[in-house]
Each structure stands twice: as structure tokens, then as C-alpha cells.
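Homework-ish question, so no full write-ups if that breaks the rules, but can someone show me the predicted structure for this set?
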Amino acid sequence: MKLTKKIFLCAATIAAVTVFSATQADQLDTVIKRGVLNCGVVLDFPPMGYFDKENKPAGFDVDYCNDLAGALGVKAEILNLTWGDRIPSLVSGKTDVVVGSTSDTLERAKSVGFSYPYFVFKFQVFSKKGTGINTFDDLKKFKVGAALGTTYETEYLAYAKKHGWGTDNYTSFKSENDAYLGLFQGKVDAIISTNTNIATKLQTQEFKDYVAGPFVPDYDDVVGLIAKRSEVAWIDYLNLFLIHQIRDGKMNERYNKHFGSEVPADLIKTLRDNK
Amino acid sequence: MEYEFHWNIVFQKMPQLLNGAFVTLHVSVLSMLIGIAIAVLLAIAKMSDYKLFSLPATLWVEIARNTPALFQIYMAYFGLGAFGIHLSPYVAVLSALVFVNAGYLTETFRGGFMSIPRTQYSASRSLGMNSVQVYRYIILPQMFRRIYHPMTNQFVWSILMSSLGILVGMDELSGETQRLQSLSFRTLEFFMVAAVMYFLITKLVLFSASLVSQKLFKGDL
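A: Not a homework solution, just the prediction itself:
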């Protein structure tokens, strides 16, 4: 009797340990075992994320997803997100990582885990030629728009508040594309977007009469990958991946493909300084 | 799910959320009131024997009821914008909601009108009332009493549909929630509080409507 009891206890312990250690599997294990990396990208933000002529996801961020999946030895599954979907997609487990130009504010870091920075943007004013916006302070006199829930919206509103402009002249748009549509239709005189997106738009026929204006003063938009805050080992892996992207020349290759030049030395420097 | 809720950030931003809630209440109540006025006229026009009146009313009802409100709001803002007509987000959402409310209510009101025997109309006319007086004193009071409950459904819809204002950057409760959650990424907390606020707004409007109805219909519903 006693022996059977002991054997039973032993078996129960082993079973418990197995179950317990199974729940210990972290995100890194989960992704490798699953064989698929669910990677969220904002696909209305060229050249970081967009749909190409065949309506397939493309862009710098999409390439980074594929590089990460390649490093992990798994297949990348790209999920199209809006700016507002980024966190819910992580919390609900639909994505493992979001490569979505997420500004690494301290406020957000209370909610979500940030990797090292992987890109740096400048925020810039975009308007029709001859609008007469020469400095950022000129915006006081104009109707300004930006995409809802972006850091440039926050920065503009903070600047406007600090200088007593009020918010009557401000319109927010649901998405990046709608902001450009609003500018195109003349709903606003200028929008604020990133230098990279503006550069892409300037090459299109619709925006040939438009011009990139002043930058948001004294602001570097440093962005990182985001993952669940609790997945520390996973974020460690993401960090090492980003270091390797620079070290192995992959970042330069991707930059060249999407921006048509070598990655600027000061961009690499800012990335390293912000690590 | 291992998710830690942080509520204090939501309470810090309460004034902004309440502002958004006020805009939601404002736009939906206003769109209902205008919608009711238009729907009464449309319902009468739709029942008219003259095609000149009945056709446009039918067209309005058919378009309003058979296309998504989301599309109507988008058309009012960006659609008209393509023709150089620029409505503010508030006016775009208000007009789209009036359009859809009027469309739905027309059918409700028409049903109400039809349920009142035509003989009452003839009887009132024979007492020397003109058409306007007949509607004002005889038909409309009975009609509103009968369609009160279906009408309140549209009230609720109107409030909930105003959340589509987020599409065109209107600072109503959904838009404000979206903006605030993007600052802190406390998405779940903000959305849950916003959902509770929508619930309370809806209850508040229904309660006020029942007070008004008790006054108007002397509690006889």
C-alpha cells in the first residue's frame, strides 16, 4: 500500500512539474514551436509599410518582419494594423511583435515592452506650394491636420497649447491616408507627418504641387519594436536582432531598397545613442 | 490572461473623456430632434398620392435604410469634399445622422399614421378643421403615442452610431478615447470606461425621453 502511494505521489509530482514547465514556455519558445511569427505592421505608412502593386504587404517594416522570422527559422505572417490596433493586437495575442514605428515614450512603456530603437523620424509640415509656411510658428495662422493617435498629433497639440494657439484650427483624421486626402481636398492647409512618408508622397502625381515644410522643432521621433511587457526574454531576443540588423549590414540593405540611399551615419549614431 | 489594469491614468483624463461624452450626447440628441421633424414630413409625403412628393421621400428612405451609416458619414465628409463642399466633422456627422434617423423614423411614423383609421380624418374635416389642424390636434398626438417605443430604439441607435464620428476626426467619446489610449497605450481601460459612459448616456437619454412622454401623453402609454 505504502509503495503504491509513493509511486502515485512520484507520478503526480512529475506530471505537475511537466505541466508547470509547459506553462513556463515564453514567447520566444512559443513562436519557434508554432513555426509562425505573427508580425503586426501599419500598412498605410509608406515606405515603412504599404501595399505594393500586387496588393501584397511591402516596406521597410515588412522586410524587418521577414528578417526576424528568418533569424528565428519560422514563417512570417504579416497582420495589417491601424495605429490604434497596435496594443490590442499584442494584448489579445494576435501578434507576437509589432514592427510599427512606435514612439518609445515613458508613458507608453508603462503598458508595453519596447525594444531598442530601430528607426528615427523627423516630423515635418506638408502643404501646397505657396501656402507660405516658412517656420513652424507660421502654422498658427493655418488649418492643420494629422492622423489621430500619432505622436506628431500629440507634439503639435502640445506645441499649440504651449504657444496659446488653441485647437480650433486643428482637425484629426482617422488614418494617415485620410490626413493626406484631407490635405488634397483642401480641408486643411497643412498636415504634419513624418519626413519619410512625405518624401514618398512627393514622388506621386497627386502631390507634385506640394512641398515639405519646416520640421517640428527639437524633436527626434525615436521608435522601437513593441511586444508584451512581461516577455523579457523575447524582448532581449528582439534587441539582439536589431543589433545584428546593423552589424550584418541588413539595415543598410533595407534602407537602400526603400529610401534609395545608404543609411545616414547620424541615423545609426542616434540609434546607438538611444540604446 | 496576465494583464494588470492601471485605472489611475483613466481617472486623470476624465475631464477630456467627459468632454467627448458631451459631444456624443449633443450630436445624437440634436440629430434625433431634427430627424423626427423631417421624418414626420417625409412620412406624410411618402403616403401622398402625388409622385412629386412620394418619390423623393421614397428615395430618401431607401438610401438611408439600405446603405451603411459609416459610408454616409464618409460621403458627407470626404465625398462632398471632393466637390469642394467642406463640412466640419461635427456638421458632417450631424447631417449623416439626421439623414439616417429621418430615413428609419419615416417608416416607423408611416406605420403609426396607417394605424389611425382614415375615418378620424374625415370626421375631423367635417367638424370644420383644416388639414394642418387635423394633424396637429387629432392625428399626430395619437401617432406619437403609438410609435413611442419603436422611436426610442432609434434614439439608442443614434447615440451608438455617433461613435462612427471617429472616422472623420470628430472629438466625440470614441475619438477622444482613441486619442487618450494612444498616449498611454492603456487601451483596455479606456475602452471599458468609454463603454460604461455610452451605457450611461443611453440610459440618461431614455430616462429623459420617458419623462417627456409622461408629460405629453399623461402617462398613458
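Now go work out the reasoning yourself. Hint: The mean pLDDT of chain A is 90.
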